[in-house]
Amino acid sequence: MEQSELESKVQKLETALATQEATLAGAQATQAAAQAGMTSTFTATQTGTWAVMATGSVGLLVGIFLGMAIAKD
Q1: Per-residue DSSP letters for 2-71?
Q2: Model pLDDT for residues 3-46, shown as the tens digit of each residue
Q3: What is the pTM of this model?
Q4: CA–CA separation, 62 vs 19, rounded Å?
């Protein structure tokens, strides 16, 4: 093999390795973004659930006291 052929093959291998590294970095970034999105979605869902439960509890208590006040009259 001539020197120029070896240099060409080394250059192609370097390009392929750089491409592979860039692809891996992109995949890792995508996975991190997806995980962050899932975490924020889960947090928002939990917050919404607790807010609905708290509102329902307050409504129940107000209804009980209103019912007691109306019943006394």
Answers
A1: -HHHHHHHHHHHHHHHHHHHHHHHHHHHHHHHHHHHHHHHHHHHHHHHHHHHHHHHHHHHHHHHHHHHHH
A2: 888 999 999 999 999 999 999 999 999 999 999 999 999 999 99
A3: 0.60
A4: 64
